[in-house]
Amino acid sequence: MNRHIPFERLHNFRDLGGYRTEDGRAVRPGRLFRADSLGKLAPGTADWDHFLSLGIRTVIDLRYPWEIEGKGRVPEHPTLTYHNQSIEHRPYDQAALAPSVAPGPYLAARYMEVAEDGKKEIRETLELIATAETGPVAFHCASGKDRTGLVAALVLSLLGVPEQTITEDFTLTNRATAALLTDWHAANPDRTLTWPAYGSAPAEIMTTFLSALQSRYGSIQNYVTDALGLDTTFTKRLQAALLEAEPEGSPAGTAPTRSPSSKSDSTNPQG
Prior knowledge:
The protein has 271 residues and is of the alpha/beta class. 40% of the residues lie in helices and 7% in strands. Helix 2 links the parallel strand 3 and strand 4. The model is unreliable at 251-268 (pLDDT under 50).
């Protein structure tokens, strides 16, 4: 299934709505979007009009401040509230990696660094996403793969979406890889891209990351509670904001059958 919403300049813009949870509910469509850099939008273009038509009220930019300074941010608009939450603290250059670097173990380890280094920013990001009840939210990084993929995985897990579905969502970036590579070459005409895995999203990255996080904390909910300080009360608030109503006949407030996801970048950052 191709969940990408078509834009001219955005290549990895997706609605997280419609994913089924383990208790039979679904993520509400049109409430939470993940994307590559919204700094590529410009007023007066069809892309900008299309973006505004989605009714997004909150934009969360996961990039470093220096990335925003160099590449721009989403244009200001009276309907938008903008937040910069730089969740990654250790820059690394994916484009310059050696061809021998395996993307699964390498990027999973970088995600674990982000999960530990960026606790404050990740917590604040999750709290902002929980405000989707007041209007749709979009969160993004540079390519919409790594930092965006980490946040998407945490949110979907807390909503009760199965790990297999979370991993499949992550791999959908592969549909945008060719366009992301074209953008990189256009922005870096004097550089040589040495890492053949640049812009790709093999499932092993996400499965290895989730396994490592669960091994360290016991579950994703435990990570969110113990490391981020957000307990199950927050999780229920997030679910109320982003999930459709309980299945008919289910007692109000019934939790998923399993704890969410319990065990079952660079000088040119790309995600």
